[in-house]
Write a structure and sequence with these properties.
By secondary structure, this protein is α/β, with parallel strands linked by helices. 23% of the residues lie in helices and 32% in strands. The protein has one domain.
Length: 111
């Protein structure tokens, strides 16, 4: 198999952008209680999560002005390794690139 060039790797951010370009609507104004759900592949706008198990393995999700109350967050796939690596970074990098936007009303946004 020499001489073959492997296909280029497609970053997950490209897939999320492609999803937006296709006009796939966001999930808006929903309230989730006592459920387990995967965030991956979805955009949640103005949603509330109460006592939920939230899961991510890819990180390709968006929370836009959402409220989380008594939720548990589970990281799958390679997420735990990424978190461990990020823990080695200095605080200034984390504050600049890894912060959650918290609005005065307590809702959060993660883009």
């Amino acid at each position: 198999m020499s001489g073959l060039t492997p296909p280029p790797k497609v970053p997950l951010s490209f897939l999320a952008a492609a999803r937006r370009e296709l006009g796939i609507p966001a999930i808006e104004n929903r309230v989730y209680r006592d459920v387990s759900l995967s965030l991956d592949g979805y955009t949640f706008k103005n949603c509330a999560f109460y006592n939920c198990d939230l899961q991510t393995a890819l990180g390709n999700f968006t929370l836009d002005r959402c409220w989380l109350g008594d939720c548990r967050i589970y990281f799958g796939g390679h997420s735990p390794k990424i978190l461990k690596l990020a823990s080695l970074l200095d605080d200034s990098f984390l504050k600049q690139h890894c912060t959650v936007t918290v609005a005065p009303d307590g809702t959060i946004s993660i883009y």
